[in-house]
Amino acid sequence: LLVLLAPRPASSRLGFGATPLTGSNFDSFVARNEKVLVDFYSPKDPRWPDLHSELQSAVREVRGFGCQVPVATVDANAEEALANRFVPNGPYPHLMWFRHGEPTQYHRTLRKSKNIMDFMLALDRDPLREAASEEEVTKGVNRAVYAQLPKASPMYKVLEVVASKHMDTVEFTHHE
């Protein structure tokens, strides 16, 4: 009885919590969440149980770091039209990051939980940096996009999507 009541580490209590997506709920799910990681997979792949386990482990780890980005899965065999829309030529698994409903980053070769975790944590950050002025931006970097717009504007969301696609090559800054 004591073994059953013994406390367990938090990571063993946290579930995977992935939302299965289909053609009927995909667009609304990625649109209503600011950021989403989607795993397009094929259960026919003999490696799938191991790959799925690695993804589960990675998600539990990033939750421990405070990353609350929703994770979803798409069975590419059952949802062929949906899979072809985003991953037309395979291979699977294929991880895709969405921001404001738009795909911004993807990875086809991440197979280990550590690599998946690094991918998620690197993308779960603000792609825009607040800048006081255009001069501040031009002094600090050699390539940057500077925008003056309110955070509540629709254009700010568009800028976030574009910045998410290029966050490792160009600095995106804004001032309200």
Automatic annotation (TrEMBL):
Signal peptide: none annotated. InterPro entries: Thioredoxin-like_sf (IPR036249), Thioredoxin_domain (IPR013766). Residues 20-120 form the Thioredoxin domain. SUPFAM superfamilies: Thioredoxin-like. Pfam families: Thioredoxin. This is Thioredoxin domain-containing protein. It comes from Strombidinopsis acuminata.
